[in-house]
Queue: 2 jobs
Job 1
Amino acid sequence: MLNYSNPITEEKSYSGLQMREVKPIMKLILRGKKREFLSAVGKSLNLILPAEANTFTKSDKLTALWLSPDEWMIFSNEVSHIGNNDYQIENLLNKSICKTNLGAVTDVTDQFVLINLKGDKIYNLFETGSPFNFNDFRKKKASVTQTILAKIDVIIQNESQNDVNLFVRRSFSQHLFSWMNDSASRL
Amino acid sequence: MFVINCPYCGEREQSEFKAGGEAHIVRPKQPTELSDDQWAEYLFMRKNIKGIQFERWVHTHGCRKWFNMVRDTSNDEIKAIYKMGEKPPVK
């Protein structure tokens, strides 16, 4: 049994904005450049990695985010069992990608914290602390961006209208969450 | 503050990037045959001109990729942006 200690313990709700941590969610970083890498990942996951910049693709179980021309993050759509850190998908990818020298798979489940935001004031919150222009981002379907929020590196995924997933490094998550609460209370 | 068009991510604000110094400096093929002065020239000496400069930049808070930029240092006007390994599109 794994001993989980969560940096964010509470759910917060404001008018037009709800924030909570979603846990535990499997997160993997995939890196590779070759065409064989892309087809091997596609076969193993039943999911095509997004080739277009700043977009994501989604299957029943997984979502794949574009991070850079040779880097993607995949995460599970549903929470896994607490106490389990052995993932079938990771083992499968290890076999089809790492052992064949096509690319690299890194488990970042405990490195990133996933914060889900809901409501119509999400972008009002982001605008208080990010240099990124969210105008096109919020209108475009399946958009992803890596940017800065309150001087902290974040990955923001536009899941659907008024539903956004935000990934932040675990060591920054508590600080960012308290900053977001502070900022949201003044919207 | 100015907007930089990352060749991979698109237009982003300058604070997401870091400058990486002068571009197109070629490492000498036989460093052991160089004099100390020549080696120091390669290692430390950089142009710092007022006008058009060739620079390397990295999108630190985005895709973390390096690219080249031609920038006028007097007014921060970006003349061209091109990927690593490509030849500069302007002289």
Note: The helical segments of chain A are 35-45, 88-98, 122-127, 134-139, 170-184.
Job 2
Amino acid sequence: MPKSAPTAKPAPAKAAKAAKAASVKTEPAASNGRARLAVRKTYKLYVGGAFPRSESGRTYLVDGDNVALASRKDARDAVVAARKAQPKWAGATAYNRGQVVYRVAEMVEARAAEFVALGVPAAEVDAAIDRLVWYAGWSDKIAQVVGNANPVAGPYFNLSSPEPTGVVGVVAPPSLLGLVSVVAPAIVTGNTVVVLAAGPQVAITLAEVLATSDVPGGVVNILTGRAAETAPWLASHDDVNALDLTGVTDPELAADLERTASGTLKRVLRSRGETDFTVDPGLHPMTALLETKTVWHPKGF
Amino acid sequence: MFEYAPAPESRSIVSIASTYGLFIDGDFSDGKGTFKTINPASEEVLAEVAMAAPEDVDRAVAAARRAFGPWSALPGAERAKYLFRIARIIQERSRELAVLESLDNGKPIKESRDVDLPLVAAHFFYYAGWADKLRYAGFGTDPKPLGVAGQVIPWNFPLLMLAWKIAPALAAGNTVVLKPAETTPLSALFFADVCRQADLPPGVVNIITGAGDTGRYLVEHPDVDKVAFTGSTEVGRQIARSVAGTGKRLTLELGGKAANIVFDDAPIDQAVEGIVNGIFFNQGHVCCAGSRLLVQESIADELLDSLKRRMATLRVGDPLDKNTDIGAINSAAQLAKITELSEIGSSEGAERWSPPCSLPDHGFWFAPTIFTGVTQAHRIAREEIFGPVLSVLTFRTPEEAIEKANNTPYGLSAGIWTDKGSRILAVADKLRAGVVWANTFNKFDPTSPFGGYKESGYGREGGRHGLEAYLA
């Protein structure tokens, strides 16, 4: 199925983006008058805190870069990394997770020029930073807003609290703001993610941000390539708890993935057509990836 | 054990008609055939019930759709008053409905009378109060109902599961088509009469009876906006698959294989009561039953001796006898499944024990049973038996207990028995289960959300959280 499935649309190659990207790659003449040869970046995957090539050895060409083309096995390796990192990340204090996500915002701010050079509009970079700051603040508030004590009719202490669902497979939208808007709500609540990125250079640059932002290895894993090829493996994977289909634009692929996910009763965050990432996301991106645990205990002397 | 004289609850309080139709648009009408519902304690036929064909489901969904506009447009306070009325009528007819439930389901009257019916009334009472307060529930300032809800419920708590489905749906402004289980349709049909007594507008609640095909047709109906299902994980998967890509909202409350963990400092007598309640309540026909006992090795012998002594006092028999602890198994098919898995337990090497107890000649019965020497590889430790059968495993450290407790695709409930508060909280944190009972078990309340992690389904029923499934 994955091989014959339609390939995901790569990030829109805007003329402005290409021009800006080119300006980074071919440096102007050095001060001594001789042209300096640029040191190019290799765009690899981001799995378990490291930047491996695809185990398949495959790459594909995106705007002049040979980008790693992730395989089924890369997806499975990423799930292993995400699962391994999950208990410790969920067990970190909410305060700590908030600090880490805020640190991500700081690092995007510091590298804003790099994202702009990749063709991301400056306003979008700003919005992505603001979105990260917004979610950072949610880390130690979401439990207070969606959890509550329950006044049961008996002598019992009874409390419902949200908990992360676990490992989330994410089919991300191509834009930086879209990518941040799907990753941040998943991780700030204590989940770990395997992201199938649509805009590879932007996504891997974000991975470099994450790698330098105190985000523990394995909390965010980013695969570049064709979502239509790799997403079915995440949808059917027994050790993935939820699937975020926000970035899936083909309704048939979305329905297929949802059907596949039913085999393990994954929580599915459905795509709702074109998402406007500039508006207030509300709580749903977080609550869709949370479980509610209710604990009872008798009261008595 | 003391000898008790029989203390049967009178059947005369309930009058069961010989046939029942489908409750659609406020009236009863015929289906395309009928099926019989029996008393599992005697195999006596209680009534013939209409089998809903696809065109009947179409009629029911159409009635619910017509009723949706006016019902959702009612001020919340008015919807609330209908639900309060329903709650009151259930309280008034509580004994009748309890006897009916025990007759059709086989559960002991003391459970239908003291657990099921009080919770049913309380559930309607609780959600009635939400109907005019939805914008304060935390799901947006202008929450909207979804439309027509297709709801399919199981046979283990027929009227209680109906209440869990219908009360929040109606409070939020939805209309419903509900299908009760094939073996326990009667209390839902009596509920239809409760709706009429309450003057609920026709079409707001529709009850269609039938088997799996009827349920499948209902959840796949294109004019259903929301599907809610309680039942087996296998059927839950099929429903999730059929709903995929349709945009319908879905909540699933599925199977479980709960661990009931007893630490060495637990008060043994209380723990034994909790273990017995955890697995023998409602004949073990409970998705959140504590069907895997994890006991710390150092107290295993003492605990098991005590548990066996207690099990020997359990009274198995006539569900209508007020002294009965364990009633009838709901159906021949369920009895066959319990029998088969228990035989597999023995053949895989676990040691089987039941107290001496005589079972009635007619009907479906299974003696309370425990298996010791069970390992995690045994099928009786992995599969939901849904009967009065307990698998006992041991552990040495809290880490091992947590590892074993979570070693299941299910995640509905769990129990912890220990005197140490910090241990309760640490273990509760690590258990992957939607409901954790500490030093208690099988407690339910309309204010308390219920539902599972992992393959026990998604969504919550009960409490403020339970509204989310019925609001856009």
Note: The interface with chain A takes residues 122, 138, 140, 233, 236-237, 240-241, 244-245, 247, 252, 254, 409, 424, 428, 433-440, 443, 445, 447-451, 453-455, 457-458, 460, 463-465 of chain B (CB under 8 Å).
